[in-house]
């Protein structure tokens, strides 16, 4: 489900069938707000809703082949999901590290790697 360009697909289905967000939502059994979230890329439809969209795409004569996301985009999405799964404190530190000058960031990362090695050695002994 995550490998499709949902905003573009939903927009094209809506345009082809001449449906507003509310009408589109009603036709697949959801709210206008959910359709808006999908169009803005905040969320993707559930498997059940996706199947209903696929039926609408067929009805509109739209092939799903042109809506597959490139592997690069999929990797970026996966990376974002991994970051979101981290505790908030770690995410904040990560963002702060990215704000630093590259040389300073490199020194901090080297220091952290040395610390990790030391901790791992203590635990393996």
Number of helices: 7
Number of strands: 0
Helix content: over 70%
Domains counted in the coordinates: how many? 2
| CATH fold topology of the largest domain | 434 Repressor (Amino-terminal Domain)
Describe this structure as you would to a colleague.
The protein is mainly alpha-helical and 125 residues long. It has 2 domains: 6-67, Orthogonal Bundle (434 Repressor (Amino-terminal Domain)); 86-124. Helix content is 73%, strand content 0%. The protein contains 7 helices and no strands. Helix 1 crosses helix 4 (47-60) and helix 2 packs across helix 3 (32-39). The longest helix is centred in the last third of the chain and has 23 residues, at 102-124. The mean pLDDT is 91.
Short description:
The chain is built from seven helices and no strands.
